[in-house]
């Protein structure tokens, strides 16, 4: 473990004018800038191909920006990763599930950065791996091969690996894709606990409807940062329309049932998950249907 080192302190993240071009010349991100402090859950949203995974890869040091840079707790990326400050939960498609390895081995990998070159786990490593599996409700599966788990169970095991790493920053690439409602709720609960312990959690998701319920901040991207800030100010109809354009279903509801009151106009943006409902003033009413609001 890092003992009383930097790994136990609150750590923020700064992305400054990051431009990433792939070898084929495609510029996936240009001039992307935002800053996040510790004790925060931030959603990263954008259409397919908008550069979310590329941004994670730049933060992880897997791709090198052509311009700009990332600092993690004031440290450059390489140094921050040597100090185990960032844990990453990749998209399911980025993992080779046929690799013959048990759930226990996957979670112990989260401890590699703290082990010596022989990678023999100490009691403390085993204790942390056990606690991490317990925290995601997967301890009972510890001897299973990773390839034999369901999609949602695999996600929870990778989350346990990230927890075992004890990074102060957690990057989660689409953790809710293909998981059931109960698992999503338990992952969100865990992210809230981590936020309250001072972690910074950056989570990319297409599940727009759930964002206002658990994210303090939002970064909206489309090959650059379109908007970044507190959820209430950033997660607006206007910004979402800019980012998603025709990719979201957009309904207008004129709500004129009560002849005695002024008509309310609702606008519903939906990504086929929970709909987002905005009032006539463009402010979010709820992430539910207006008729549900009415029934309360
Ligand atoms: N290794 C690569 N080589 C070339 N182009 C790439 C590479 N990886 C990604 N891209 C391109 O960069 C752009 C951004 O991809 P990225 O995976 O970052 O998007 P994303 O926002 O994570 O998308 P999704 O929501 O579909 O996961 C896309 O146009 C993609 O085709």
Automatic annotation (TrEMBL):
The keyword ATP-binding is assigned to this record: yes
Pfam families per record: ABC_tran
Signal peptide start and end residues: none
Location of the ABC transporter domain: 13-248
Molecular function in Gene Ontology: ATP binding; ATP hydrolysis activity
Keyword Transport among record annotations: yes
Gene3D superfamilies registered for this protein in UniProt: P-loop containing nucleotide triphosphate hydrolases
Cited SUPFAM superfamilies: P-loop containing nucleoside triphosphate hydrolases
Entry keywords, A to Z: ATP-binding, Nucleotide-binding, Transport
InterPro entries tied to this protein: AAA+_ATPase, ABC_transporter-like_ATP-bd, ABC_transporter-like_CS, Metal_Ion_Import_ABC, P-loop_NTPase
Taxonomy, superkingdom: Bacteria
Similarity field: Belongs to the ABC transporter superfamily.
Protein name: Iron ABC transporter ATP-binding protein
């Amino acid at each position: 473990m890092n003992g009383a080192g930097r790994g136990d302190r609150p750590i923020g993240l700064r992305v400054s004018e990051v431009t990433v071009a792939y070898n084929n010349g495609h510029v996936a991100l240009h001039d992307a800038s935002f800053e996040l402090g510790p004790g925060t859950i931030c959603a990263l949203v954008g259409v397919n191909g908008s550069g979310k995974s590329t941004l994670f890869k730049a933060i992880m040091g897997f791709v090198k920006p052509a311009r700009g840079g990332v600092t993690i707790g004031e440290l450059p990326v390489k140094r921050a990763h040597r100090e185990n400050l960032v844990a990453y939960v990749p998209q399911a498609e980025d993992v080779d599930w046929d690799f013959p390895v048990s759930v226990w081995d996957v979670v112990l990998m989260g401890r590699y950065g703290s082990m010596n070159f022989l990678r023999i786990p100490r009691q403390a490593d085993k204790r942390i791996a056990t606690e991490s599996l317990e925290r995601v409700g997967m301890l009972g599966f510890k001897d299973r091969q990773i390839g034999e788990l369901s999609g949602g169970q695999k996600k929870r095991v990778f989350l346990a690996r990230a927890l075992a790493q004890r990074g102060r920053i957690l990057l989660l690439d689409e953790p809710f894709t293909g998981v059931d409602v109960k698992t999503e709720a338990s992952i969100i609960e865990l992210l809230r606990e981590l936020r309250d312990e001072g972690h910074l959690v950056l989570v990319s998701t297409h599940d727009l409807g759930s964002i206002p319920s658990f994210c303090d901040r939002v970064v909206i991207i489309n090959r650059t940062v379109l908007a970044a800030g507190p959820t209430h100010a950033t997660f607006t109809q206007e910004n979402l329309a800019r980012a998603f354009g025709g990719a979201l279903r957009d309904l207008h509801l004129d709500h004129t049932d009560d002849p005695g009151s002024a008509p309310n106009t609702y606008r519903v943006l939906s990504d086929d998950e929970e709909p987002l409902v905005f009032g006539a003033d463009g402010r979010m009413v709820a992430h539910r249907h207006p008729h549900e609001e009415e029934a309360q």
